[in-house]
Amino acid sequence: MSPEQPLENLRLVLVGTSHPGNIGSAARAMKAMGLRQMALVAPECDPGHRDAMALAAGADDLIAKAERADDLNPVLADCTLVFGTTARQRGVRMPGLSPREAASRLLAAARAGQRVAVLFGRESSGLNNDELQRCHAAIHIATDPAFSSLNLAAAVQVVAYELRMAELDGAPPATAPDASDPEEGGPEPPATHAELEGLFGHLDRALHAIDFHKGRSPDTVMRRLRRLFFRAAPSEREIRILHGILADAERMARLADAAGGQDRG
Amino acid sequence: MSPEQPLENLRLVLVGTSHPGNIGSAARAMKAMGLRQMALVAPECDPGHRDAMALAAGADDLIAKAERADDLNPVLADCTLVFGTTARQRGVRMPGLSPREAASRLLAAARAGQRVAVLFGRESSGLNNDELQRCHAAIHIATDPAFSSLNLAAAVQVVAYELRMAELDGAPPATAPDASDPEEGGPEPPATHAELEGLFGHLDRALHAIDFHKGRSPDTVMRRLRRLFFRAAPSEREIRILHGILADAERMARLADAAGGQDRG
């Protein structure tokens, strides 16, 4: 919201955390790096536990006012850019970024007034595939392959540190290609996470309606299409156009169906 | 000694540590960043305490083989470059370096076969003046002035991370967002201009077929969609998927048309 305080637009989201001490350490790491917006999604422990308070060491205000939710939807709804941290690059079916690259992109978006988020998964198993599918890219901390076990709070510290460095870096980084519309004046803000998820839901329904899958599993195609549209970072207006196209395709499918559905499949 | 393994020449020195958990967390942070040489000077706790072992989480070998000493002399004796971490820049009467600058200088020296060290002070009071006087420069982590309380292990994590980044500098960076498909092997080349134009032609025909325009000029929408897909830079395979979707939408439109086209327009 306020370009003067870009870190206010940036939330770090802990998903399914098991150890209250990690929530406390993460809060302390965040606060020392100037980050204040924490979100706790489906924690597997009590964030008010004394271990959390002890390790927060004065950053317990972040925990007290942390957004809490049972799933990612409300936390990501207004976000235009979401990155998820992963322990390994291999097998992650999405673009990979270093913490430094990620911080640069997050800060650029936050400075433009957009809401952005970074997700941190469970101590034991990280983020699951569904959660990673909600991300525009994965942040990969280049640990030693011989010992890649990074503590959750340590990962938060590294990302928070790079965000702080990016914030202190005076010159705003070069802007990525965006959805600006020279025909219509100023640049258009990219769609929010909720708007993009709305598009993906509609796309999924429309592909079924026009019988695109023909018995094959829709998973691979949907994963590819998600990646394609995440890359494009459509504006809210572009999302509306795409909804319109999908609605017309569905209308044709209904008419075809009403006519007896011959030649389908 | 071995320029191929510069991190072997680099030791992190914990001075007067009070909490065994911090020794364990520091060991884990170091090992995950490829650092193996830990030294413990006059610890105020038992480095073999179970809290240290628990938080080391598999990095307890670093603690077991850590150099131990009552003062800095034996630990720094063979070092040519020593930096000390400080919580605050003010009042430190020596050159100040960011962790990034420090890591760059430490790695350069370590690559040249020199022994180098970074000192980390007490949880409560940091390094004292005598200890800082042993250092060539101070490393200052730019915490938020409103909350500069960085946990000891978090400071170790930040410095170890920058050392790892400096070591990897020169290695190929993490992959940029592209159309690569790790599911299927190597990266996919982006589609050619001709393939993109082929998609736009098909898109134009499909929008007419499903009666998207409803009498309005197609120019503005097509211009927007072109821009969207140019930004996404789809791969040849993604273009094929989009052709498939458009073909199925056209098929539905034909079926609807054959059924009499009621409700169209």
Automatic annotation (TrEMBL), chains A, B:
It comes from the Bacteria. Residues 10-161 form the tRNA/rRNA methyltransferase SpoU type domain. Residues 170-194 are annotated as: Disordered. Its main location: cytoplasm. GO terms for biological process: methylation. It is found in: Cytoplasm. InterPro entries: Alpha/beta_knot_MTases, RNA_MeTrfase_TrmJ/LasT, SpoU_MeTrfase, tRNA_m1G_MTases_N. Residues 170-179 have a biased composition (Low complexity). Keywords: Cytoplasm, Methyltransferase, S-adenosyl-L-methionine, Transferase, tRNA processing. It is an enzyme of class 2 (transferase). It holds the Pfam family SpoU_methylase. Its EC number is 2.1.1.200. It catalyses: uridine(32) in tRNA + S-adenosyl-L-methionine = 2'-O-methyluridine(32) in tRNA + S-adenosyl-L-homocysteine + H(+); cytidine(32) in tRNA + S-adenosyl-L-methionine = 2'-O-methylcytidine(32) in tRNA + S-adenosyl-L-homocysteine + H(+). Catalyzes the formation of 2'O-methylated cytidine (Cm32) or 2'O-methylated uridine (Um32) at position 32 in tRNA. This is tRNA (cytidine/uridine-2'-O-)-methyltransferase TrmJ. It comes from Pseudomarimonas salicorniae. The lineage of its organism: Bacteria, Pseudomonadati, Pseudomonadota, Gammaproteobacteria, Lysobacterales. The gene is trmJ.
